[in-house]
Design brief:
heterodimer, A: alpha/beta, five-stranded mixed beta sheet, 42% helix, 15% strand, B: alpha/beta, six-stranded parallel beta sheet, two-stranded antiparallel ribbon, disordered N terminus
Chain lengths: 259, 466
């Protein structure tokens, strides 16, 4: 048997289309890999195929997965695919293939000893953890027009999960989430749906804060400084709980910009 | 005090359930930043800052939702989570509790927020995602009733005028009218009454104005309120929720001479008899010079607090009881070993357990296996024979667990099931403590942390070293 390596776009749709292809052509899961980027090291005796993202096919796969794995199972798969790991698609694909052979596919997630399932779970936890950290660490600034703006630079592609969370939390606010590493925007209009947009020409200097903004930033910095108990000071613990990479985007760790 | 009463006079608004404060003593003289400084500074010794326990989706119109897990929004320089806007309504207080920075006899700057100011701050902080909600406590202004009334009014405004759906944790003031506490509970997610000190004896010496009975009364009221409400919600799905995230309390550790056993027993009975969600332990921080208070040279007893939290988790999630971990003879925790290892070493006759066959409750008791890994073991062993490699992947800390488990009847490598041998090896693998990385060394901490230096711990240590 020969190995097949499918190369697809790094998105949910891309990977789902590749999964569709693998099933359509009856490839064996243990001999099939899905890559979301161009292979650096080409492997001998493997057939490389490029998959063009197809809306219809990916939708079909998504529907099947949602139906068979259930809401929670589908969520786990999506979160694992949001991870930044290079081998995520293969792990998820093999988990899917294993799961679909069971009467209750969701039970595949209990197979912690299986390498693909274990990897999927690990990726999912990793992405979930960063998402959950950002639920708290995202800092909105009010810019002109009363719009809220926040910049993030997550390792995993979690912006759509964040947008879901904040759209539920702040339904009557206009807000913009900006993933600077991926040049991605999540745009939410008050009382409406949010959507993703890509813009690589955005300059953060163009963002102009509203009149009230400085006051509340100042108040929050003051509060964070005050709330610490000096007798228990523990920078190591703080660093462990709130890694430095988040801090450039957080109000309480940055100095006010004087204009 | 009488003048304050007058200024704070509260009147009903058109006979409706709304209130207006006529004048405010601080409103004109102090700006909001100064107030926030004073009133957050005064609130920081309260440790409970979780936003967990309630799941509330957004309603598509108003601001706010809540997640069961809670969300930490930041971490302060002491490494503790900042989740809620933790402030006092006022740091004025008619009481004179010896340990408290806000006691009547202290000469500190005093301030009070108006309910409107608290609402504005909460809303503006919340929409910028600085906080998960509000934690509102207060010194006793005028009388317990008056203070509770002000807390209620603040929450009423926040929920009904500002339509805030985020998390609210509010204190129930001991001695306040039961009706007021009941009304407030319908607006809050979590309520708490601080036990302050583990025993009535300690309370008498350090908080002469507070009485054990006064503290337990509102606690009981909230408990029965929650139970009654759960029945109501079961019947009528849209009935208003009363304190849906449960109630909590806190105890100060190390200000009075109680032993760990006494403290843990108190916590256990609070969980069992008062159905508390959480008991928080707060290492005593020396803020007031008072001859009735100890002055710990090594700073707050952080290791002791840490051991109590570890034991607290064992009570809540691991099926241990206080009497198993400590007893009349052994009153304090071992400072060198965590409570679970300590327990296992004293009960070697129950080990080793085989991960493939042992029941869940026994697996939970193995040092190095937590709730998550125990659950995963039980799930995974249905479809596969587990190896030590698998256990490692699942998240078991093998360097601790290996002495106590077998996989398919085999040990990871041959080890003796002897107390001294295992103790020596466990001590060699240094325990990771949350404050190890500070300047304070382990040795300093342990000496100051437990003056009595639990005898059996010492004996065990000497036996293992010699």
């Amino acid at each position: 048997m020969e190995e097949h390596i499918l190369i697809c776009e790094d998105s949910l749709e891309g990977v789902f289309t590749a999964v569709y292809m693998a099933y359509e052509k009856h490839y064996r899961p243990e001999l099939t890999a899905i890559q979301t980027s161009e292979a650096g090291n080409l492997r001998l005796f493997a057939v490389y195929e490029t998959v063009m993202t197809d809306k219809v096919k990916s939708e079909k796969v998504a529907n099947t997965l949602h139906r068979r794995f259930g809401e929670e199972g589908f969520y786990i798969l999506c979160l694992a695919l949001a991870s930044a790991d290079a081998d995520k698609a293969t792990a998820v694909y093999r988990t899917i293939a294993q799961g679909l052979r069971l009467a209750e596919p969701f039970r595949v997630f209990a197979r912690h000893a299986d390498p693909a399932v274990h990897k999927t779970q690990k990726l999912k936890y990793n992405a979930w953890h960063e998402m959950h950290q950002l639920f708290g660490f995202v800092r909105f600034r009010e810019i002109r027009g009363g719009i809220l703006f926040a910049e993030i630079a997550p390792k995993n592609n979690v912006i759509s999960f964040l947008a879901d969370h904040f759209a539920d939390r702040l339904p009557s606010e206009h807000f913009l989430l900006y993933d600077s590493g991926r040049a991605l925007f999540a745009i939410h209009k008050a009382g409406g749906q949010w959507f993703l947009a890509r813009d690589s020409h955005f300059k953060r200097e163009d963002v102009e804060e509203s009149g009230e903004e400085a006051l509340y930033q100042e108040l929050f910095r003051h509060f964070c400084h005050n709330i610490a108990v000096e007798a228990r000071r523990n920078d190591g613990l703080q660093k462990g709980m709130l890694p430095l990479r988040f801090r450039p985007y957080m109000t309480e760790f940055t100095n006010p910009v004087r204009k | 005090m009488i003048s304050l009463y007058r200024i704070y006079k509260i009147r009903p608004e058109n006979g409706k359930d709304g209130y207006e404060i006529m004048d405010h003593p601080y409103a004109d003289t102090m700006d909001i930043k100064e107030k926030l400084g004073i009133l957050s500074d005064a609130a920081k010794y309260d440790v409970a800052c979780t936003s967990s326990g309630v799941d509330r989706k957004g309603n598509g119109r108003d601001m706010g939702n809540a997640l069961t897990s809670g969300i930490c929004h930041s971490f302060s320089a002491d490494g503790r989570c900042i989740s809620l806007l933790k402030i006092l309504l006022t740091n004025e207080c008619i009481y004179d509790c010896k340990y408290c920075v806000n006691r009547r006899s202290n000469d500190v700057p005093r301030a009070a927020f108006t309910p409107e100011e608290i609402c504005t701050l909460t809303i503006h902080f919340y929409r910028r995602n600085y906080i998960e909600g509000l934690f509102l406590s207060s010194g006793i202004l005028g009388s317990p009733d008056m203070t509770m009334e002000l807390l209620y009014r603040t929450l009423y405004l926040l929920r009904n005028r500002y339509h805030f759906r985020g998390y609210i944790h509010v204190k129930a003031i001991p001695g306040a009218d039961a009706g007021l506490i009941g009304k407030t509970g319908l607006l809050a997610d979590r309520m708490s009454v601080n036990l302050e000190l583990p025993t009535a004896e300690g309370l008498r010496t350090l908080a002469p104005n507070k009485h054990r009975k006064n503290i337990l009364t509102p606690m009981r009221q909230i408990q029965s309120g929650i139970t009654a409400n759960q029945n109501e919600v079961a019947l009528y799905r849209h009935a208003p929720r009363f304190v849906p995230a449960g109630q909590s309390t806190q105890m100060i550790i190390g200000a009075t001479p109680e032993s760990d056993y006494q403290i843990l027993s108190v916590a256990e009975s609070l969980y069992q008899k008062f159905a508390l969600k959480r008991v928080f332990y707060s290492a005593f921080v020396h803020v007031n010079a008072d001859k009735a208070l100890p002055a710990p040279a090594g700073g707050p007893p952080l290791l002791r607090e840490h051991r109590l939290y570890q034991a607290d988790w064992l009570l809540r999630y691991y099926g241990f009881s206080a009497g198993e971990l400590l007893n009349e003879k052994k009153q304090n925790f071992n400072i060198l070993l965590d409570p679970k290892c300590d327990w296992a070493l004293g009960h070697l006759e129950q080990f080793p357990v085989d991960v493939q066959t042992a029941d869940y409750r026994m697996i939970l008791r193995v040092p190095g296996i937590g709730v998550k890994s125990a659950r995963k073991i039980v799930q995974a062993r249905r479809s596969a024979r587990l190896t030590f490699e698998d256990l490692k992947k699942i998240g078991v800390v093998l360097k601790r667990a290996l002495y106590f488990i077998t996989c398919g009847g085999k040990q990871m490598y041959p080890v003796r099931l002897e107390e001294d041998y295992i103790t020596r090896n466990l001590l060699y693998e240094k325990e990771k403590l949350p404050f190890e990385r500070c300047q304070v060394t382990y040795k300093q901490l342990s000496l100051f942390d437990d003056v009595r230096f639990a005898q059996e711990g010492e004996e065990r240590l000497w036996r293992s070293i010699s």
